[in-house]
Each structure stands twice: as C-alpha cells, then as structure tokens.
Amino acid sequence: MDDMEPNLEHAINIQDKFHFYFLALVFTILGLAVQTSHYFSKPQAIIEVCSWALLLSSGLAGLSRMEWLPVGYENYSKLLGQKTLLREANTGRQLMHESGKIMAPLEAGEFIKEVSIRMEERSVLIGKIERKHRIQYFIHKWLFVIGLLCLAISRAIGLFLTPLSHITR
Questions:
Q1: What is the pLDDT of residue 82?
Q2: 67 within domain boundaries
Q3: pLDDT tens figures, 143-155
Q4: What is the Cα–Cα distance from 101 to 146, expressed in whole angstroms?
Q5: Please, what's the b/e burial string for 125-151 (b: 16 or more CB within 10 A of its CB; e: otherwise)?
C-alpha cells in the first residue's frame, strides 16, 4: 500500500477495523446471550434459540467474508500489475523474458494478447468475488439485526413473564 493515495489507505484501514469490530460484536453478543439465558415459557425459549441461530449464522457469514477478503485484494493487485505491464508494452517499451532476454516483436505481441486475456478473466473473477462479498455482508448485517431483535423480544417476554419480586432481588 506504499503507492496508494493516503486518504484511500486511511479509508480502507478504518473499514477493515469496522469489519473486525462488527464480527467480534456478533460473537460477543452470541456468547453473552447463551450464558445469560433463562426460560420462562416455550415461545420465549423458541425465540431465544432462534436468536442464537441467527447470530451464529451472521458470525459465520462474516467469517467467510473475512476469509475471502484477502483473495479479492490479491487478485486486484495482480490485475493492476497486468494493467501496468500492458500499458508499458503499448507505449513501445521492450518486453523481457524472466531470463532477462528481450522478446522478439512477434513473441511480444503474443505475450500481450495472453496478458489481455488473463486480465479479462481476472476482471470477471474480481467481479464475482465482489458480488460474493456484498451478499455475505448483506447476510452478516441483516442476520445480526434480526437476531438482535429476536433476542430483545425473547428477553422482553421473559421480563413480562417474570414475577416482579424476582426482578427486584
């Protein structure tokens, strides 16, 4: 990230921290919900367990997203490298083999075609990864919200079903 614009680098850094915080929050709330559960009725217990399932699913979707995030960054970095190589080749710069030998014009033309094809394939792959990230984040966020609402409803039911003398102790 050395050659990245400072504001963009800062934005990515903040976004990454937010995603880690959000993921930790989901699992923290899930753990606390399980540890502090009390059942006063069957409907309340069902809602409580559903909230656990929703929070767990949210957390797993978030973990899956975090697992795929480096893959997206890696592919995007490789795409930028291929674009730079192609730009330099199109400006007339001579291309070299890995051995350091300069490529013949016909060989360089074939190499440029191959790089262009790989760039298109990588662009399609990046599009798929980005779509997957958006879907996983949508699932992560909304399952968390619904799970939190179910947990609040379960706890409210438990509060209203609990005798007042039990609460004030």
A1: 85
A2: yes
A3: 999 999 999 999 9
A4: 61
A5: bbeebeeebeebeebbeebbebbbebb
